[in-house]
Amino acid sequence: MSWRDLGAGEVRTSHVGERHTLAGWVGRRRDHGGLIFVDLRDETGICQLVVNPERSPKAAKQAHGIRNEFVLQAEGDVVARAADAVNPNLPTGEVELQVDTLRVLATAPPLPFQLDEEGVDETLRLRYRWLDLRREKMQRNIRTRARAVSAIRREMEAAGFVDIETPIMGKPTPEGARDFLVPTRLQPGRFFALPQSPQIYKQLLVISGFERYYQIARCFRDEDLRADRLQELTQLDVEMAFPDQEFIFALMEQTMGSVWRDCVDVEIQGPFQRMTWDEAQARYGSDKPDLRFGLEIEEATELTRGSEFGVFANAPAVRFLRVPQEFSRADLERLEGIAKEWGAKGLAYLVYDEEGEVRSPIAKFLSQAELDAFRSEPATTVLFGADEPGMVARVLGALRLQLGRELDLIDRDAGRFLWVTDFPLLEWDEEEKRWKAVHHPFTRPNDESLELLDSDPGAARAVAYDLVVNGIEIAGGSFRIHESELQAKIFGLLDISPEEQREKFGFLLDALAMGAPPHGGIASGIDRLSMALLDEPYIRDTVAFPKNQAGIDPMSGAPTEVSPEQLAELGIAVIVEKD
Which band of pLDDT confidence, cut at 50, 70 and 90, is reported for residue 173? Predict the structure, then answer.
């Protein structure tokens, strides 16, 4: 049986006079006192059906009972619309189908929300995800994502990379986030872990002689969800032997160019801008700066070393923003609240009014040289951060983004790509009193940092790089440690004992000791890449069936309890915490 011989969105004036069968969903039904108009929708688009009781009384009778999202099959003649009825907003707007036969293939009850309804609660949308996915925006998002993956595969294979799958069930290892654990009936009391990334496996593949590997990999991280974070994610995973950073950068620039061209018809100009991590922190207070607007952080540490304002004189770092807005006292109190949320103790300021006069409780403590350096245009506010360098960067970086949005400084049509390079290798965790890897434990220190591992690990820099577009990190990678002894040394700095190294990473250390070539690569999160590509603020709207912020699937109800018998078979006892 043939359900249709033409897509609803494919009907054109060239089909006028022909007889065709269409099938799809009812997008809208309008009864004009006899004539009934139906917008029939399928994946190709929309075609208007006209049901005339004089032409087909039977079809007209059926049409009176249909509602939105019924599934119909319609047969009839394609005719040209009257000149005053042409819809210039539709590719099919010059034609319509005069229906002779109408068949209801599936019915639908009153819907929990309409597909064109704005502001629908996300939980309701996720509960009825199959309806939500019919919306035009969601169709666009999911189809665009698929085209992006297709473009990525094309570029990877053209560059000689081999698509190799790695295990979903592997060994629990400390890589950053918590693992999702999988019990096994055949080995009671033992657990696999779902991969946070294929990191170790891809290194082993390169060590095995597959010099250029890639994969569109599923990854799992048991971490708190945010607007740009998922527990189940998909990433382009790339690794190569004898790595060349310039080659990797050029490959990703070529790949992103293909993605933007194929998906949103935008040409990207390369090579992309580059900036060290230190410069990004100093100028933008972020390792993923949004370059679509200025409002750069300025340095004042040396200028204020002898300041009579003690907060500045005694702070390890003093930096500031010049904001093109004269803020009121209420504005400043609100901004101070935001600064404190990011860890600041307060927010010093200088406000210049329309006449250029300064208003500030700290102005009287500043020297003429300081005032001259901070002097700004009329109707400008200077906001200061004074603290440890990391804290100042974090606070002013957050304020910069907040003000960029509030003051409409961001060029929404721009696509600003940036490579951030030379990341710190390690960061000190004050709570746990130990070093942690900034990227992951397998990241290679640069040659200049090797001698710092014994004397000043915090100053060591990594051969690591991130690709950022419009403030969104869309890829990150590094060169890896290929010497067994150096990898063991880094593990030791991370407070992983020799015994734990053998238990959790013994197979990797053995592989590194058996002819491991220099290797490195990069990974790009497809979900976050889709956010940037689509200018989509919520990562869950780039995924067909996501969990909500609590890690629950409102549609299926997962995760669910399982029977005591199934738990017993796995050797698992569930302990329920009392309220």
Answer: confident
